[in-house]
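Could you join me in thinking about how sequence relates to backbone shape in a protein? Label the sequence line and the structure token line clearly, so we can match residues to local backbone shapes. Once you have written the record down, we can walk along the chain together.
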Amino acid sequence: MMKVLVRPIIYVMLALSLSACGDSEETELKAWMAAEQKQAKAVIPKLSPPKVYTPFSYGGKGDIEPFDPAKLLVVLARLRAQSGNGIKAPDLTRTREALESYPMDSLKMVGTIEKNKMVYGLVQVDKTVYQVKLGAYIGQNLGMIIKISENEIGIKETVQDAAGDWAEREAKLELQEAKK
């Protein structure tokens, strides 16, 4: 019987101890928050008035549009008229020679040879050696051989610039020393 009475007493004491630690901290917190809220004042900056829009009217309706291809053609025609460098277009219909299919940086001069009082240059591409003479074409930029000496082959290339005019520039292949 004693065991039956002990249990309800334990439950009652447990409930009383829990009720004692409940409400006091919460009321203090609410009081502090109310006091802080009364002291704090919200500062809202005033908005500046909106900027006034002033419309812009485009006055170039009669001019050539900046991105029109016709404008580019007008400028190129003007440049052609001014340049007049006197270099005529090369014959693009002629039969291409074997060394014209290689870029200049893949060609190497490996020597010269003289046959029948005429000097030929020896040009190597990959593992093949070609004989070249004055007036022969070489490289991908319409290069014509204009000079052959023991140390170099002089080349005159004819290229087209951005304006469509033909221009000449000089290039050379220098003798490559043999690897030991």
In short: Residues 65 and 151 are 55 Å apart (CA to CA). Helices lie at 2-20, 24-39, 69-83. The mean pLDDT is 81. The beta strands are 108-115, 118-125, 128-132, 137-138, 143-148, 152-160, 166-174.
